[in-house]
Amino acid sequence: MDRTRRNLLIGGSIVSACAISGLLPSACAMLQIIGKPARSMSSIPTRPEGEAKPMLEEDIAPVLARLDAWYAANLAADKYVFNPPATDAQLDAFERLVGLNMPRSYRQLYRWHDGENDDRWGHIYGLPLLPLTRAMADWKSWGRTLAEFGGNRYAIPGGAWPEGAVDPAYINPAWIPLTNDGSSGHVGLDFDPWPGGRVGQVILFGRDEDVKVVLAESLGRFLDWVVGLLESGNFRLKAAAGEVVLRQFRLKEPQSDHFHNGARIILGAPGPFL
Predict the structure, then answer these.
(1) Is CB count within 10 Å lower at the N or C end of the chain?
(2) CATH number at residue 205
(3) Is 147 helix (H, G, I), strand (E, B) or coil?
């Protein structure tokens, strides 16, 4: 049996089991070891010497205004809606939970909208921006998985692109989910980059994201990239009559049905599997 078919079979069984039990990503991460060799604590990769570049200080109000304008021009306002803004108290509680001071841009993003309530599909090319409560829940779930691995972030082998810019771990408590693709795959903020990266960079990580990828140096630059793609016409949007979520909101070029895969192709990054 070739590796691709093997991975599909393993992945299908994992997803089915997780869907039934509601254990994504925590217990189902254990099942993933079935298809990948576990890495012992003695084989943890060596972090390169040096310090990552400091976090960028950004005012993302202009980018959010461009997103507002594009959504207003292209999406039906009565169907595709964000939540009301988060409060400072909610943002403060989130910071206390994760033990991090979030950048100004993050607080601006959530003072714009506290994510959206779509089950799986949303405004970031079909990916929903997570409400703070859901981001908290996902972050806690990854923490439980790390505890089940005995604190070994590298229990499942991983890679990184660019090499040396992002931790090739399976889990890192300093990764904060921004989106969830329905299978515990995330676009998120990285507050523990390796020396080739930048604090606060935006990465791909998750259950089926062996190779972590840097999408942008910061939240503001990520959102600017997304709105630039939209404004250039690089999107497909087909909504059936009565449809209440953005199930067909996808990249036009490349014609990928999953933003993670399309983003990798655009950036020239490797695929998600080792």
Answers:
(1) N
(2) 3.40.1580.10
(3) helix
Q: What is the pLDDT of residue 204?
A: 98
Asked if the peptide bond before residue 25 counts as cis, ω within 30 degrees of 0, the response is yes
Any idea what DSSP says for residue 139?
H
State how far the Cα of 194 lies from the Cα of 198, in Å rounded to an integer: 8
Query: Using one digit for the tens of pLDDT, what is the confidence trace for 93-111?
Result: 999 999 999 999 999 999 9
Please tell me the distance from the alpha carbon of residue 61 to that of residue 108, in angstroms, as a whole number: 7
182 Ramachandran zone, left/alpha/beta (phi>0; psi -120 to 50): left
What gap in Å lies between CA 181 and CA 128, rounded to an integer? 8
Q: How many domains does the chain have?
A: 1
Pseudo-torsion of CA 213, 257, 121, 70, nearest 10°?
Answer: 90
Asked, for residue 24, whether it belongs to a domain, the answer is: no
Task: Name the one residue in this structure whose structure tokens are 């400072």.
Answer: 88
Virtual torsion, Cα 249, 85, 205, 125, nearest 10 deg: 10
* Structural tokens at position 148: 């089940």
Distance CA 77, CA 26 (A): 36
CA distance 194 to 166: 5
Which pLDDT does position 212 carry in this prediction? 98
Say whether 73 sits in a helix, a strand or coil.
helix
In a domain, 142, yes or no: yes
Quick check: is 70 in a domain? yes
Domain that holds residue 78: 41-267
Interatomic CA distance for residues 175 and 178, integer angstroms: 9
